[in-house]
Amino acid sequence: MKIRVKPLIISLLIPLAVGGLSALLTRNSMEAFGALNQPPLSPPGWLFPVVWTVLYLLMGFASYLVFVNGRNRRKVQNALFVYGVQLFFNFLWSIIFFNQERYFFAFFWLLALWVLILITLVLFYRIHKPAGLLLIPYLVWVTFAGYLNLGIALLN
What we know:
Layout: H1 5-26, H2 30-34, H3 47-69, H4 73-99, H5 103-127, H6 129-133, H7 136-155
Helix pairs in contact: 1-3, 1-4, 4-5, 5-7
């Protein structure tokens, strides 16, 4: 398979930009987050940006694989549209949770995000199996994030 450099770079930069902007807009709320009562199994704060960077790279590469391997342009466009919607939900979750501190609302928002990720994973898988599989760690992490979100909502 020949790598198409420009689409690959764009595919990687889109989720990284979403995550970077989200981190920029929520950076001042991390002190308040650290002071919250945390549920058991809460990871250290330094782990979140590391995991999210890896997940954004996996998402970007998955979207690249769909873009370059999809034979049915309509299916590709539909899958990438849902991918974009879930990225938007991902971005807004951080604002709702960290900046607005609306923990229960953020939990339900995260449930919607989880469903969108699952739909994206299925659509990607139908177009190019490895692309769908690359989204499994993202779905698992957001499942764990849901546990943490609900725990924080209940404890604070």
